[in-house]
Amino acid sequence: MVAYSIKDLESLSGVKAHTLRIWEKRYGIIQPARTDTNIRYYHESELQKILNISLLNRHGLKISKIANLTNEELKTRVAETIQVGSAFEDQLDSLMLAMFDLEESKFTLILDHQIESKGFEMTMQNVVYPLLDKLSMMWLAGSIKGVHENFVVNIIRKKTIVAIENLKCKECKPEMRYLIFLPENESHELSLLFLHYILASAGIKVLNLGINVSIYDVIDAYTIFRPKYIFSIFNDSFAETPLQPYIDELVKNCPDSHVLISGFQTTSQNIKLPSKSKILYSITDVKSFITHT
């Protein structure tokens, strides 16, 4: 059973814990359960209800009126409120609600509307990554099921691959060849795919080796592909072993390439960057680097 604290509800809905308690006491909108030691917690249904309520409240509907709606009326009003041009915050809540119900068609429809109206890159930055951040918080708190995370990741993965394939193959910078990959024990593919999209959309030729790639395969690919840049992301890998020797070996065996690195481990470890290597801390850094090289 998934359980949420009131702080979890606050983090995921954006509604302050104090406000939630007022709603709870005054209107009986949500009802906490209690552990044997009298600690309050909430079920998934309460989180879904709060997401619906906060969305309607942001659009001007008073809590006193919302409290009188049945669950079906609440869902209907939310569906009527969400429009293609709605704020990113509304779309985020709607995606979470579709996720909880595993409604792929609804989730995909919301995502497609955002991509069509705002563009793929802006949708990723303003909707998808905030959604993934919320899922990460829920995962750390033990308040999300694995099926929900898999549901979201698989849909976004497919959308990103399609977006890459739909890019016009202009390759206006043929000399700016990038080899990108995730090392062994690194499996968060979405960041790699989005990096691929950003590079390809700038007209750069990209060789994407995928996830869990050994350094020997990277060196073989370097020998054949001759990239100007080699880019990798280190989040989960090298959490318990130093990253420095790996970077040194990569630079040594790929002398004609610049090595670019990113991810949590690149900032949490005290890395002495060899020549022809650089840390890029964010997508903004990546885009700036592309622009100025």
Overall description:
The protein is of the alpha/beta class. The protein has helices at residues 6-13, 17-27, 44-58, 63-66, 71-81, 88-100, 104-118, 120-140, 146-166, 189-201, 215-225, 244-253, 264-268, 283-291, and strands at 33-34, 40-41, 173-181, 204-208, 229-233, 258-262, 277-279. The protein contains 14 helices and seven strands. Strands 4-3-5-6-7 form a five-stranded parallel sheet, with helices on both faces. Strand 3, helix 10 and strand 4 (204-208) form a beta-alpha-beta unit. The longest helix is centred in the middle third of the chain and has 21 residues, at 120-140. The chain is elongated, with a radius of gyration of 23 Å.
CATH architecture of the largest domain: Orthogonal Bundle
Largest sheet composition: 5 strands, parallel
Give the overall average pLDDT. Answer: 88
The radius of gyration is 23 Å
Give the uncertain stretches in residue-range form.
Answer: none
Q: How do the strands line up in the largest sheet? A: 4-3-5-6-7
CATH topology of the largest domain: Multidrug-efflux Transporter Regulator, Chain: A, Domain 2
Describe the structure using short key phrases.
293 residues, elongated, Rossmann fold, 2 domains, alpha/beta, 14 helices, 7 strands, two-stranded antiparallel sheet, 57% helix, single chain, five-stranded parallel sheet, Multidrug-efflux Transporter Regulator, Chain: A, Domain 2, 11% strand
